[in-house]
């Protein structure tokens, strides 16, 4: 059994931050994809990304849209 969904999401969000993705871009994505409006600050964006209606697969889609190498984030699912 792998890590919990929350742990996977935390790891993926950390990748966004480490790559220097602007929180405003993620906030815009949250609004467009989920109707979730948040202030463009990492604290608020992070909280919104942890909601149950945002899945790890959704975050992978965002990473893909942003041009991430998806093979580089596969380890988010490892123990």
Explain briefly what this protein structure is.
The chain has 79 residues and is an all-alpha fold.
Provide a descriptive summary of the structure in words:
By secondary structure, the protein is mostly helical. It contains four helices and no strands. It has helices at residues 5-18, 23-34, 42-49, 56-65. Helix 2 runs parallel beside helix 3. 20% of the residues are buried.
Broad structural category: mainly alpha
Beta-strand residue percentage = under 5%
Radius of gyration: 12 Å
Profile the largest sheet. Answer: none
SSE topology:
Blueprint: H1 5-18, H2 23-34, H3 42-49, H4 56-65
Helix pairs in contact: 1-4, 2-3
List keywords for this structure.
79 residues; mainly alpha
């Amino acid at each position: 059994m792998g890590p919990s969904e929350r742990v996977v999401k935390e790891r993926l969000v950390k990748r966004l931050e480490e790559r220097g993705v602007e929180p405003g871009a993620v906030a815009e994505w949250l609004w467009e994809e989920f109707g979730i409006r948040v202030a463009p600050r990492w604290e608020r964006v992070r909280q919104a990304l942890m909601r149950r209606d945002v899945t790890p697969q959704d975050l992978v889609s965002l990473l893909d849209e942003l041009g991430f190498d998806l093979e580089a984030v596969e380890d988010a699912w490892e123990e």
